[in-house]
Amino acid sequence: MTGLMAYVGARLEVVDPLGIIHVSELVKDFRRPKRIKGALGGLRTLVTRESVIKRAVDGIDFTVDEGEFLGYLGPNGAGKSTTIKMMTGILQPTSGKIEVAGIVPWRERQRNALNIGVVFGQKSQLWWDLPLRESLQIIGKLYAIDPARHRANVDWFVELLDLDPFFDTPVRQLSLGQRVRGDLAAAMLPEPRILFLDEPTIGLDVVAKERIRGFLSALNREAGTTVVLTTHDLDDVERLCRRIILIDGGKVTYDGDVESLKSRFVQQRRLVVKLAAGVEWRGVGIPGVAESIGDEAVELAFDPAEIQVSELITAVLADHQLTDVAIVEPELENVVHRIYASAGMA
Amino acid sequence: MSGSALTVRQRLAAYAGLAKIQISAQTIYRSNYLVSLLGLLFKVYLLKEVWVAAYPHSRATMGHGQQISLSAQIAYSTLASVQYFVFNPWTLSGIPERVRNGQVAVDLARPVRYTAQMTFGQAGVMIAGLPFVIVALPFAILVGGAEAPASAGAGLGYAVSLVPAFLITLLTGSIVGITAFWTLETDGTSIIYRMVAQFFAGALVPLWFMPGWLETLASWLPFQATTYTPIAIYMGKSGSVVSTIGLQCVWVVVLWLILRLLAVRALRRVALQGG
Prior knowledge:
Chain B: InterPro entries: ABC-2_transporter-like. The complex is a heterodimer of chains A (346) and B (275). Chain A is of the alpha/beta class.
């Protein structure tokens, strides 16, 4: 067995049918010294024992099944990173339960670390001054990976992520895209059951993003790795995630698939028509259709539950000659923007 | 794969790997080392000049009831400068930088102990300086001076006592480093630490020339065990070699416990309050 086959073979030893991540009534409070304003405020802040409690995570519940690809989304400050840090064992919950692959992360941080891989888009786990090759070597030691398996995995990642052209270049000289590929290889080398990704594609160009998405998709599909992704890039989500959890103000506001999210939050579809030269817009005369007339095209917003598309198109064609007609489905980008905005967060 | 934690043997291999990777990382700072070696030779030379000027014509004086010859004093200051140079690279500890830039999150997601990762890494940084010193030593002796060890046993005792001396330096530096979890910024503390540590280590002036109260103070601090103690053993001025090394080892244990205690508190602070 070589490459992918060996990796998959090693990975699929255990599948927990009851779910691999369990989070229930999870709460995290941060205590910060109270800032005092006014005269000598800075000094009084320093000596005061008063503090303010900020609730970052406020009673979150969810279960993730092994093999899922979960998008964990929310505006800045919603509590995403705090939850991830609790799942990696860096933070201890104020109350509630959390279990990752049968381990309570904050109680057994080091043992939990053997089951998870973490990639922070803004931080690297690689050794800055050394070639990527040496970083991957030491990671083999840190996770006590069997040497033969280590070699096979490195070969596979070099091929799959195309690391060869820069494998012997010091990490400091790599482009951001190359570095993130190196970080992904480093995170996945120990064959973790769960991969946490915190904004992995931030700052990358389209080609680099696409390459990383391809890798993540293959990893999840072929090796069955459970992936939890936080990102602000909703193209990532549409391409990769079958399930989304949306959090805001420390609470889960949505948990389900991408399609239902769209239909739940955006009832409207839009019909875009382009008029033939010299034709003037005369309206369709159907109640419930909002018209907006532009220079090039006319946009008609409607609720598909009340008005049939065919009915609308027929009405348009009855009075106008067209060069083009298109139905615009809602984009996740707009949907999420709308949700954030309605919560007063955007 | 999921289940058991790393065995002791696997952990040691991991820590050794972390030290080794720091050794190779330091090779890119070769030219820095070479430049700072010139600084070392300059220091050795200046100290020699000062001692020659300070000593009476008889070329011998008394320090704490012992006769200290000029040549012994020059040998001391040469050896002390070289030793201090190896044990104290530019960074005392990797902790403050990694706390400041958030890399600590990466370290905490590893399956091995945080403080061990940091101290073994720092040990690698210190070991990386050794080859340069071996090259510089003959020059230092040329510029300064040297004396043979008081006896074969003293020579052996010296070599052995360098191990706890190394560990004490490593641990005190790490203790200063770990305060970054509370203060974020340790530059000021580090400067004071270096000053105090260098002085009380006897790296500038040996303890035998310190006034009684200062020597008493120095002997109650761990720093003298890093520089003064090994050289005093070398020169046969330390009393019982075994008990002197034993005392060094007590310091290693005490400092290790302090570091562990601080680390537990630091990580609890992170766990409760966030980064």
